[in-house]
Write a structure and sequence with these properties.
The chain has helices at about 100-105, 130-140, 155-160, 160-165, 170-185, 200-210, 230-245, 255-260; strands at about 55-70, 70-85, 90, 115-120, 120-125, 140-145, 215-220, 250-255, 265-270, 270-275. Helix content is about 25%, strand content about 25%. A hairpin with a 2-residue loop joins strand 9 and strand 10 (about 270-275).
Amino acid sequence: MTPTSGTTGASSDRRGPHADGAASRTDDAAPDDTGQHRLDLTAPTPMVPGWRPGSVIDLAGVEKVYRTGAFEVAALRGVTMTIDEGEFVAIMGPSGSGKSTLMHILGCLDSPTAGTYRLAGDDVSTMTEVELAEVRNARIGFVFQQFNLLASMDAWRNVELPLVYAGIDRAARRERSMEALARVGLSDRVDHRPGELSGGQQQRVAVARALVTDPALILADEPTGNLDSVAARGMLDLLTELHANGRTIVLITHDAEVALAAHRTIRIRDGNIQDGGGGGVSPGRDRRPAATPGGRP
């Protein structure tokens, strides 16, 4: 099953080819009440080679090769791209283009075989497993096509899971879960289990779970793929609203009409960026209206 927000697992080569590189900015961050250092995607970052102030995601020459015995499959072939803070970007490509592999690398769920990935200026390959788990749980919100809700738990308990992993007390978890569900319009469904919800409502629960840690970055992997046209339109409207409230949104899709909801589209094919990989427009400038399936804004 695809990992949800709060996943602590990591691949064995997580530290990648740059494990001896510059130290992560978390070494200089103030410790929280547990004594651990936390990565802050919005904190000022010292100038480092290859990083541009204001960018959240910087990839330079990123490759990903899967090996099975004597066989090798190159999923990504030297990907270079930048996504700035406050952007709403779609990464679009057909099946087998490498877009899901790219999403897993952006979400620190997998590591590159070669190249550099900087998240808010930090070289991800230099992060420890604890730091990577913290980034996945608290700083990035994940929304997956398959929802990944636990069938035995009602909506608010599914939403609270990232807070459980973060060690938040029960009363605070419930309060924050209720607030997150209210933000996605499900105040009247907090005690319903996934089987008692429509597909659109289940996806909104998944979005609430992604929001409950108040992340700066939302990664949405084919979030409309299992929804009918009405629910898909509502999901894109919700992502547009979240972007308007200041979050950076990265939407992975194969559908050109869905990609129209974003303000910039990065096209990927055969593991290569075809176009759109450069820095984005400034928030509030050169924006297209949000679109719905069917291509209508």
